[in-house]
Amino acid sequence: MKNPLMQTLIAVIFIFVMYGTAGAKAPAQQQGDTITAALPVNVKTVARVSGVAGAEDKLFNPNNTFRDYGIFTTDIGIMWETGTGAVMMAFGDNFGEKQSNWKSNAAAISADKNLADGLTITKFITDSGKVKELVISGQKKGQDKHAADYEVTCIPTGGIAVNKRQFINYMSVHQWALNGDNDQWLLNKSELIYSDDFGKNWTKSGVQWDGKGNFAQTAYLKKDGKVYMFGTPAGRYGNVFLSRVDEAEILNKPAYEYWNGSTWVKAETGAKAITVGTTAEMSVIYSSYYKRYFMVYLSVGRRAIVFRDAEGITGEWSGEKIIMPEDGNALYAPYFHPYSANTKDIYFIISHAAPIWNMFLVKAGISQDPAGFNLIGEGGFEDYPDNNISFRSPWYLPGSTATADSRSGKVACKLDNPETGVFKDAALQTVAVKPNTKYTLTGWAKASGDHFKNAYFGVRREDGTIKDFNPALNTGWTKISMTFNSGNNNTVNVFFGFWGEKDASTIIDDIKLTPYP
């Protein structure tokens, strides 16, 4: 998502993602594998989707978007099935060579039936032979830059088809790089636009969400006659929220309901987070093959593309699982190909900002996660075992260090208490839970050295109440386990800490939080 007047380098992560099979007709639903926790495996970049290959780029390029359509570089690429078996794609800021011919957005159609060798774009939506801009920004129209609703650009964030009418939710960008941070921006609003001629013409609906609210950036999913809209605040530092509406009422904003952690409510302000993290450029599908919901997004805190899965759309959602970490190409914006909902392998587009903005197709298999379902992210502290223990971790780990004295994997987390007479958190992670629900927290711990008294393990609820215990530890691995009720809370802080004895030291590993039993 670029500001065409500013070199706004998107500081994001590296990941190539890809698709499975797509085409004029969606693949038939298959009898899937039974899994209780999904783990993407064998992640492979299949092909380039847009732009021109560089000298070092050996990837297959089925689309010469520059030669055929004048698009040399482009931002994100969302996708959805049109209701006819084809797939519609909507793109963000795109340019010709040397940042010429800027457009805030564009759309294309793909009838590709086989993604194994890349995603072929059948055609772009054009007007008088040139790629058409779907929504023209205020900046391009000459809007006063000092206007309260000044609009730099209009970027699609989510799309869906209902009865062959195509819908896009776009974000109206007011300012990029807020406070010099490329992962923060200000939005005026998000708004639904629709097309009744498969993308040739688009109409603003007037159905809008506040740019300062929790549905400023969106992702869509249809299930059982409902349209589900996932939302995040503007930028890349927000949690994920959820709303829904009957398909026939998609343009009736008062008909929308919002998930408050326990039930659906009418007030948008009643929405509570279904996942906690630094979420950006999100995509969600329901896999009929695996009978689970899959979510992918850029996690700024992890500097990686991450994956979550859930049995139900409202959760509980698993902790973040890194698909691919940053590796120099500043990857971001993973968007599922819609046919991934019916196939054994999943495919999605990934964008990267370096050396120039463009998109690639990536493929991944799905296997049963050997660690099982876990609401905790990085419960084994193994995502970056060769780095500092707190490196890009979902844990808050003040003063903790990695140790090779692990129960499993390469490392465990060694917790140290630097003070006497005060309680100090040594490890902390915030997790979304369902209110008034029973959970089990387990892990493994051992004493390190002679000082190991007064180590506490437990949860701190939003309302300030605490459930913890002080296990008896020795120098061998001991399983720790407790159950708790979330009470009237939507999040809890899982913590490990010390009270009292200075230089107390404990090693923890394989932490797990699951619905009871």
Automatic annotation (TrEMBL):
GO function terms (MF aspect): hydrolase activity, acting on glycosyl bonds
UniProt signal peptide: 1-24
Pfam short name (any one): DUF4185
Keywords: Hydrolase, Signal
All copies of domain DUF4185, residue ranges: 62-354
Presence of keyword Cytoplasm: no
Domain CBM-cenC: 374-497
UniProt-listed InterPro entries: CenC_carb-bd, DUF4185, Galactose-bd-like_sf, Sialidase_sf
Entry keyword Lipid biosynthesis: no
Protein name: DUF4185 domain-containing protein
